[in-house]
DNA sequence: TCATTCATAAACATAT
DNA sequence: AATATGTTTATGAATG
């Protein structure tokens, strides 16, 4: 028996390596995924009290960070009603810098397939795309591939299948139109992908970024702060603030996740854990788990799970799991503001499938497979739910703040007790 | 030199 | 049956 023929058009191709562009070597400019996610210690850079008092009992930070948390968890709603479809060609690219697309119209895009796929998925309204639409998006954005040998589709599929960053999600049952599954970005690895994208020479690519969210916070929204204020905040940050704010962030994120979870009828149904178990990918982070190794992990032998960029996975996974990296990543990218006005208007931005996929999403919304698209800002039901969630968050935040105040009070008491004790012993010695 | 990442090709299985 | 999709293996280039 000979080799299987007629499988895909992929087969009747020349080796694309023949078309490699000089000066644009495969890895030279390519968006290689980072081995480590950039240091994800929460900088608590938002805490801007400007004071010098480093005592925990100085509760300015609490007030500030509580406001901040509200901005993070609730206030972001007002930023963008639609899904954050950022404009890859947006005005964020430095003047005089060509966009990758334009560069790649005749030459190979400076992104790895992983990043291309990631961008495609992130551009989709529902953050999930079938393979076909990933093809389409890439073709749409990178005309290079229209003339490139079709082997690139094989590479896309290969990446989807092999790469740990991507997850397969079932389409709705009983829905026969549309082959295959939907592909999503594993939230756990979003920071990695973002980090990789950030390393691209084209800063406009950053405009694609959706602020990474914790696994269950599906509605990723951009966070808008000016870089100037951010730097200022970073400048004033203090260690005590970091820890406190970190605690608050973690607390908040867990609360938020719970609240958001309540909104969702069912979690995403991840099809099958191929590279490793993704069963936890859409689960919550354990609340307030400050530990990097939370036990669940994680036998990541790069050889065991044969996939790309397996190294460094441990740390980044832990970081992202703890939600802390979300904050840091957000900080890294929150300057980028969505251009949602273009969504869907020209057919390329806010990519819509030409086939049934969107219909699929709609049905899934009501649906039977548990796949829930991101709530859109004008979704009344969603906003109502969010309001409820917000109230919950508010209440829990108050409780949390109360607890922290309580702790601070204890600390104050202890301090004063210590002082008294010292004074007494001093007296006693005299 | 070695390990790693990535691209590419290919074989094969399964679903539509 | 044809095609699309998904998985797996192999190989080689580039890089640190």
Automatic annotation (TrEMBL):
SUPFAM superfamilies: Winged helix' DNA-binding domain (SSF46785). The keyword DNA repair does not apply. It is found in: Nucleus. CDD domains: FH_FOXN2 (cd20058). It comes from the Eukaryota. Residues 355-366 have a biased composition (Acidic residues). Coiled coil: none annotated. InterPro entries: FH_FOXN2 (IPR047403), Fork_head_dom (IPR001766), FOXN2/3-like (IPR047119), TF_fork_head_CS_1 (IPR018122), TF_fork_head_CS_2 (IPR030456), WH-like_DNA-bd_sf (IPR036388), WH_DNA-bd_sf (IPR036390). GO terms for molecular function: cis-regulatory region sequence-specific DNA binding; DNA-binding transcription factor activity. Residues 1-47, 299-326, 338-389 are annotated as: Disordered. Residues 108-195 form the Fork-head domain. One of its GO terms (cellular component) is nucleus. Keywords: DNA-binding, Nucleus, Transcription, Transcription regulation. Residues 108-195 bind DNA. PANTHER family: FORKHEAD BOX PROTEIN N2, FORKHEAD BOX PROTEIN N3-LIKE PROTEIN-RELATED. This is Fork-head domain-containing protein. The lineage of its organism: Eukaryota, Metazoa, Chordata, Craniata, Vertebrata.
């Amino acid at each position: 028996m000979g080799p299987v023929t007629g499988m895909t058009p992929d087969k009747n191709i020349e080796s694309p390596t023949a078309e490699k562009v000089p000066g644009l070597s495969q890895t030279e400019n390519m968006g290689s995924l980072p081995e480590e996610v950039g240091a994800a210690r929460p900088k608590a850079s938002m805490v801007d009290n400007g004071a010098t008092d480093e005592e925990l009992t100085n509760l300015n930070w609490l007030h500030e960070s509580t406001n901040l948390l509200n901005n993070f968890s609730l206030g972001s709603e007002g930023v963008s009603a639609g899904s954050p479809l950022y404009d890859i060609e947006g005005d964020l690219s430095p003047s005089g810098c060509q966009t990758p697309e334009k560069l790649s119209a005749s030459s190979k895009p400076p992104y790895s397939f992983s990043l291309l796929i990631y961008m495609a998925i992130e551009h989709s309204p529902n953050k999930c795309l079938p393979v076909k639409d990933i093809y389409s998006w890439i073709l749409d954005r990178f005309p290079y591939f229209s003339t490139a040998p079709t082997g690139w589709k094989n590479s896309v599929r290969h990446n989807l299948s092999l790469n740990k960053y991507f997850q397969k999600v079932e389409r709705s049952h009983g829905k026969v139109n549309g082959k295959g599954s939907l592909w999503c970005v594993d939230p756990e690895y979003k920071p990695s992908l973002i980090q990789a994208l950030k390393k691209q020479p084209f800063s406009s690519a950053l405009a694609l970024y959706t602020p990474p969210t914790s696994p269950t916070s599906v509605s990723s929204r951009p966070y808008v702060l000016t870089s100037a204020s951010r730097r200022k905040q970073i400048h004033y940050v203090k260690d005590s603030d970091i820890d406190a704010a970190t605690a608050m962030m973690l607390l908040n994120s867990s609360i938020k996740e719970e609240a958001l979870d309540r909104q969702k009828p069912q979690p995403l149904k991840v099809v099958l854990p191929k590279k490793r178990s993704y069963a936890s990918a859409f689960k919550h982070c354990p609340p307030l788990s400050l530990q990097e190794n939370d036990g669940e992990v994680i036998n990541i032998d790069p050889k065991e799970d044969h996939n790309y960029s397996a190294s460094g996975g441990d740390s980044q996974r832990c970081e992202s799991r703890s939600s802390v990296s979300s904050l840091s990543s957000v900080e890294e990218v929150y300057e980028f503001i969505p251009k949602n006005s273009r969504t869907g208007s020209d057919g390329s931005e806010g990519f819509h499938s030409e086939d049934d996929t969107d219909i699929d999403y709609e049905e899934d919304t009501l649906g039977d497979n548990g796949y829930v698209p991101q709530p859109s800002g004008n979704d009344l039901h969603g906003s109502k739910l969010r309001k409820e969630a917000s109230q919950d968050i508010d209440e829990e935040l108050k409780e949390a703040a109360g607890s922290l105040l309580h702790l601070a009070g204890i600390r104050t008491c202890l301090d004063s007790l210590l002082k008294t004790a010292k004074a007494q012993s001093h007296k006693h010695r005299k």
